[in-house]
Amino acid sequence: MSLSKRKAVIPIAHHLFVDARIETERLLLRPYQPDDAHDLFLAVSGQHFYDFIPGESTPTLKEVQGIIDWSISCCERNTKEQIHKFNLGVICKETDRLIGYCGLGPYDLDPTKIEIYYGISERYTGRGFATEAAAAVLSYGLDVLELDEIITTVHPQNHASLRILQKIGMSYSHSLHNLPEDFSDFESYSYYSIKREGLPRKLHISSETTQADKDYVRKKMYVFNAAHFPAELKGRYQEVNLFVKNAQGEVLGGLLGEICWNWLEVHYLYVSDELRQSGYGTKLMREAERIAREKQCDFIKLDTLSFQALDFYRKLGFEVYGQLPNAGGYTHYYLKRDL
């Protein structure tokens, strides 16, 4: 389960790696930082730390700093489509100290596959930290990075690591034999894997909101819908925003809507009290209709509550096609007008 640098990199960045923060009950896992060298060196300097890591030995402090610098560079270049090396420092919340590492990277024997690896300071073994870290990174790889499969290899006498793999849900596949000379150190190692397909996923509902989250949902819904519309309608989307302003540029009214495929949907129509009965609501609707016709829309749709503008919209030729009673004590009307 090595943290060493072995793979080349390509200059592409992705926030899922650089900004990764994976928290568990007792741990924080995040990308290496330049000042992690001393703590990481202490973590990997145990007498038996490298007993089951093929072809490696305890690095010097300078070598550890080089690994950290290289790992940061890899992290900046990682993408979901190509992970070069995703090394994470394991921070113990109780002490706020780095106590090991865990990560994902190309499998030495087959770089098209992604392996998980981990290592915890001998001073912190026997407390379940390796299992906790590995489970969190495995979940991040499958659920967030959407990897189809994660694998690893382990020495058959490394009983502690074998128990960890079983606890986090990885399954034994086979033992490695008759390997090329370059990989002879892995001879007789056990091969474990886990696939995302059919895996019970540890998900949760969150109300925490970012603009990126909202954009993601809208984009995914748009892509799904677009697949079901005729080719000539795909890509037809634009906002329609119209405003009534005075000489000072103050907004006294407005219409907010959007053209989607073959219709215009009016979301908001507002006119200030001082402009009511002055015809500006009609002017805004007529201008929106002009744009809709210009864009070859087939109809306009909107909704209103019974205390708002039902009669106004009916005078403009809109017809009710649905209604919901008891919407806050009022009736919610849905209207449409063919163009």
TrEMBL record:
Organism: Brevibacillus centrosporus
Protein's name according to its UniProt entry: Protein N-acetyltransferase, RimJ/RimL family
UniProt keywords, alphabetically: Transferase
PROSITE patterns, A to Z: GNAT (PS51186)
InterPro entries assigned to the protein according to its UniProt record, in alphabetical order: Acyl_CoA_acyltransferase, GNAT_dom, N-acetyltransferase
Residue ranges constituting the N-acetyltransferase domain according to the UniProt record: 27-198, 189-339
Lineage: Bacteria, Bacillati, Bacillota, Bacilli, Bacillales
Record-level Gene Ontology MF annotations: acyltransferase activity, transferring groups other than amino-acyl groups
Alphabetized PANTHER family for the sequence: GNAT FAMILY, PUTATIVE (AFU_ORTHOLOGUE AFUA_3G00765)-RELATED-RELATED, N-ACETYLTRANSFERASE DOMAIN-CONTAINING PROTEIN
